[in-house]
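Deviation from plan, reported transparently: zinc ion complex.
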Amino acid sequence: MSTAEQQNALMLASLLGVNEADASERLRRTVLLTAEQGWKSSWASEVGQLLGRTVEVRFEQGDAAPDLELMIGMIAPRTGAKCLFVNLGAAGAALSMDPLGRFTGEPHGLHAAAAACAVAAAAVHAVIDNAALPPVRLPMRLDYSQLGIPDGALNRPIDVGHALMAGAGAVAHSFLRAARHLDVQGELVIIDPKVVQGGILNRCMYLREEDVGGDKAVVLAERAQADFSDLRLRPYVTDFKSYVRGLGHPPVTVFVTVDSRHVRRSIQLEVPGRIVDASTTDVRGVVVHSNVLPTEQACLACIYRHVPEEHARERSIAEGLGVDLADVRHGLITADVARRIVRRHPALDPAAITGIAFDSLFRQLCAEQTLSTPEGRQVLAPFAFVSAWAGVLMVVEMLRSFAGTTKTNYWSVDPWNLPIARGRTLRPRHPECQFCSKPEYEPIIRELWAERVEA
Ligand SMILES: [Zn+2]
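Because the crystal trials were delayed, the predicted structure below was used instead.
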């Protein structure tokens, strides 16, 4: 079993309360994709790429019966297997266990990408078929207007200027995969100090097997650049703070895709003019946030303020690896810390674990029992469709933020079902926020970004 498959198996084992071997067996179940000719057939291969990061996917019938046949468009099933029916058009998409009617028109690429996430979620649910999974409410109908994309925004170029992207992991990959459907212009600096670990192949859509060991930022920029003609991707293998200090001024726009609450807060403390953020919570949730300074509402450090569970998670990582809490808060394993970890785990090579994230190593080493605790589950990797939803919704939030029309700053979405527009909220400032509740930041924010609010 590859480390990527193992990540999926650990996640599923934790959800179902079964052992890793049993979870792996369920993930080897097969989905056969049967699609109408034409653009629905190309879209089916996109769905297959996403779904194939979690369960087995086939396009050819073969000898063995599939566990599920995914029917895309108006077409008859090829097998007697359980069927999930999908159809989509210019205004919406539908999923059902019963045959669906006709749809007209062809969706915009970003709408189709959103529909692909919903289809992958429902297909994973149907093929694994276990009551312990989060519920999927079928039939479902995705009305693209629920996404809240500003009128006309999909057909206009969007210039991000000189923007930064913090992190080059699963959400970063998904963000660029979704953004390729738009005419994005400008420059995006991708910042990540880490190297690619095998375990993230289950959810980083641009990665291939041979990328393991390469710099995450470099590999993502190289692989994704082909999808953008007017957006230049520039990788930097360093941490966010060092990059910003080198700039000499706070960044105007930052896309935040890192996976630590602590790092999110530290990014807000660099006082970026605009933040667009998306995160995943194991397989259960996707959260999107944006802010433009100055704001009277929540900032990124309000949304991801320090909470007791975060402490418990850091402590279980520190105890498991045999290091101090302060080391874990640093985020990355240094050469010195690597030597200490090897004392507890002699099978590890200190050079191989230097420069990787504590979470990644913890995930690799931890037994099922550790990961099935609430603290352990927080470090489990989501399935690919969860990260993909985060990427699509982050692109939507970018469009809303740049259009200047968004009256909300927070959206929590259930990745097994559909985004609901009325779920968007305006979160207030948190009185104990380490950024916006500190009066010393007030004049700095005004001086840096005051003109923007009047513009
Ligand atoms: Zn705040």
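DSSP finds 18 helices and 13 strands in the chain. We consider this an acceptable substitute for the interim report.
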